[in-house]
Design brief:
103 residues; Bit1; two-stranded antiparallel ribbon; globular
Length: 103
């Protein structure tokens, strides 16, 4: 994906996740919102790693939102372009993501 496409997909994921968190777990959302809305963008090697990350996060009962692209410009339609984990306490998110590098 190009840089602009990545930025757009990450923005979609962030907004969707914040909205879902606000509706389902307002206390966690509010703590995240009031403390500056921290976001970290990390990279994975491939789609399989993205799915594994999603499963690991869900095993810890973390909120996971995924973005499917409509394609076909840079990604095939229906393929996840990114996921968002949280908002959640960083200690929990780190259990799933600490091995990843910053984008």
């Amino acid at each position: 994906m190009g840089v602009g496409k990545i930025a757009t997909q990450v923005a979609h994921a962030s907004v969707l996740s914040a909205d879902k968190s606000r509706q389902s777990d307002y206390l966690t959302f509010n703590k995240w919102f009031e403390s500056g809305q921290a976001k970290v963008v990390l990279k994975v090697r491939n789609f399989q790693d993205l799915v594994a990350l999603q499963k690991s996060a869900e095993n810890l009962s973390l909120l996971v939102v995924f973005v499917e692209d409509n394609g076909p410009a840079q990604i095939n339609p229906g393929v996840w372009s990114c996921i968002c984990i949280g908002p959640a306490p960083s200690i929990l998110v780190d259990k799933v993501t600490r091995h990843l590098k910053l984008l």
